[in-house]
Specification:
By secondary structure, the protein is an alpha+beta fold. It folds into 2 domains: 140 residues, 2-Layer Sandwich (Phosphorylase Kinase, domain 1), CATH 3.30.200.20; 211 residues, Transferase(Phosphotransferase), domain 1. The protein has 11 helices and 13 strands. Strands 5-6-7-9-8 form a 5-stranded antiparallel β-sheet, sandwiched between helices. Strands 1-2 form a two-stranded antiparallel ribbon. Strand 6 and strand 7 form a beta hairpin. The protein is elongated and about 120 Å long. It starts with a helix and ends in a 46-residue tail after the last helix. GO terms for molecular function: ATP binding; non-membrane spanning protein tyrosine kinase activity; protein serine/threonine kinase activity. Its EC number is 2.7.10.2, 2.7.11.1. InterPro entries: Kinase-like_dom_sf (IPR011009), Prot_kinase_dom (IPR000719), Ser-Thr/Tyr_kinase_cat_dom (IPR001245), Ser/Thr_kinase_AS (IPR008271). Keywords: ATP-binding, Kinase, Membrane, Nucleotide-binding, Receptor, Serine/threonine-protein kinase, Transferase, Transmembrane, Transmembrane helix.
């Protein structure tokens, strides 16, 4: 009897121990599966939010989704997602993840560019070629120089940035190629070349005044999107007429984000940009901000008005004229002579007054790109309502645009994603 009691106690004890072991095992299994689930969720979020390393600091880049038709000559991995060159996979933090952009096959681009002989431009990081694809689409292919370490980083940054930026006033990136040691960016191809080619070329007719104001508004909308629509905000850093491309309808798009960065600053970095367009505050402080882009845009506005190159004394010309106009009216003396007097005086004075605000030495007194879009939109609305004043307006009829007092009530920027592949370019400037 006593032996039976001992056996019962031992049996119960063993059962309790086994039960505890099973309970502990179940607990850890539950925690393990829960942790795996959390990792999976965070991984799916990281597919849309990917860190970019810029000037030694990390920021987040929100990538856009994109779809591709069955005719596009692209390569995919076995999971249906674009894959990247092994060299990038081995570069740890600089590795470019799937961006949602299609990867074009090297052999297709080689054939489309006649073995890379159709050069149409030379960028800071390599040549640009015209490519006529077998599908019928025409694109611009930017081949990154293989001897530039900085260029390789630029490829990384450009794919990450441009893969998520979509606006009708930006030159959209539509694909890439990372094969055979070559890094290429594939862009929408513009039919009417650069704004600079129309302002200075003897081949093209002079841009009419009726086109110059809408072009200025298109550029402003593209930059306003970069500053306020992109997440995080993007500063262009190299706004100039050769970086403004025109499509077949003469709509302007902002191009060349090779120098673009998020809204981050390295005060020890070398001065970058194009002489004549650089913000004096940036040159002295090394700090590039949105208002530095505004300054460059102001120079571009005067370039559109005067048809004179900023690298050939445009701003000295403007300052001399400003001494007589006080930044308000009387800007007729700087108007492009190729217009032969065919311009609207009221629009001219309004646009020049706005441009003069943009180049204020004090960044805080410059308007924002949103304010600029509103002013240029109002100018065009006045035109459409019939209040056109050709070159007969008296200089005593003052027009003064004070953008510091603008009310931010109207959002005029179209942030819709518009990817157009119907444009064809004869000149693509980078």
């Amino acid at each position: 009897m006593k032996e039976e009691s001992v056996g019962l106690i031992i049996g119960v004890s063993i059962g309790v121990v086994i039960g505890l072991v099973l309970a502990i095992f179940a607990f850890f299994c539950h925690r393990y599966h829960r942790k795996r689930s959390q990792i999976g969720n965070s991984s799916s979020r990281r597919a849309a939010t990917i860190p970019i390393r810029t000037n030694g600091a990390d920021s987040c880049t929100i990538l856009s989704d994109s779809t591709l038709g069955p005719e596009s000559p692209i390569k995919s991995d076995r999971h249906g997602m674009p894959f990247w060159l092994d060299g990038f996979k081995k570069s740890s933090s600089s590795m470019i993840p799937a961006s949602g952009l299609p990867e074009y096959a090297y052999k297709d681009l080689q054939k489309a560019t006649h073995n890379f002989t159709t050069v149409i431009g030379e960028g800071a990081f390599g040549p640009v070629y015209k490519a006529q694809m077998s599908t019928g689409e025409t694109v611009a292919v930017k081949v990154l120089a293989t001897n530039s370490k900085q260029g390789e980083k630029e490829f990384n940054t450009e794919v990450m940035l441009l893969g998520r930026l979509h606006h009708r006033n930006l030159v959209n990136l539509v694909g890439y190629c990372a094969e055979k040691g070559k890094h290429m960016l594939v862009y929408v191809y513009m039919s009417n070349g650069s704004l600079a080619s129309h302002l200075y070329s003897d081949v093209n007719e002079a841009l009419s005044w009726d086109l110059r104001v809408p072009i200025a508004l298109d550029v402003a909308r593209g930059l306003e999107y970069l500053h306020n629509g992109a997440v995080p905000p993007v500063i262009h850093r190299d706004i100039k007429s050769s970086n403004i491309l025109l499509d077949q309808s003469m709509r302007a798009r902002v191009a060349d984000f090779g120098l673009s960065r998020e809204e981050m600053v390295d005060k020890h970095a070398a001065i970058r940009g194009t002489f004549g367009y650089l913000d004096p505050e940036y040159i002295s402080s090394g700090t590039f901000t949105k208002k530095s882009d505004v300054y460059s845009f102001g120079v571009l506005l005067f370039e559109i008005i005067a048809g004179r190159n900023p690298q050939q004394g445009l701003m000295e010309y403007v300052e001399l004229a400003a001494m007589n106009t006080e930044g308000k009216v009387g800007w007729e003396e700087i108007v492009d002579s190729r217009l032969q007097g065919n311009f609207d005086v009221k629009e001219l004075n309004e646009m020049a007054a706005l441009a003069y605000k943009c180049i204020n030495r004090a960044p805080s007194k410059r308007p924002s790109m949103r304010d600029i879009v509103q002013v240029l939109t109002r100018i065009l609305k006045s035109r459409n309502h019939g209040s056109h004043h050709k070159n007969s307006l008296s200089a005593t009829d003052e027009v003064f645009i004070d953008t510091d007092q603008l009310e931010n009530k109207i959002s005029v920027t179209d942030h819709r994603r518009e990817e157009s592949l119907d444009s064809v370019a004869e000149v693509y400037e980078v």
